[in-house]
Amino acid sequence: MNAVSYLPSDYVPLFIQLGLALGFIVVTMLVTHSIGPKRHSQKKDDPFECGIPTVGDARAPISVKYFLIAILFVLFDVEVIFLYPWAVNFLKLGTAGFIQMILFMGLLLAGFYYVLRKGVLKWE
Predict the structure, then answer these.
(1) What DSSP designation does 36 have?
(2) For the whole prediction, is pTM greater than 0.90?
(3) Average pLDDT of the residues in 78-88
(4) Can you list the domains of the chain with their CATH numbers?
(5) Nearest Cα to 98, choosing from 107, 108, 87, 109?
């Protein structure tokens, strides 16, 4: 079996591309900063979010339910992503792959059932 060895000169194109990308970023930031408007005023420097004027303190408490639902969405969304490669390679995986996916789906549904039983998705 032949071992593949790389010489340092093989990485030159990679370093050139990396240097050009970083150079483009730095030059773009410097140019936009230097030619951009520099007029400041009280009204212009106020924080503005989606057309809603700011009211109160930014440190106001937010319900933990919001973050919990966001984390659960990401969790179940990432797990569902595993279904696509399984579906594409369904015939190649055979019976063992089918059993593994049944187990995976069982655990996924058990987790979802647990979340439902705990009442996490009930919004007050």
Answers:
(1) S
(2) no
(3) 86
(4) 62-118 (1.20.58.1610)
(5) 87
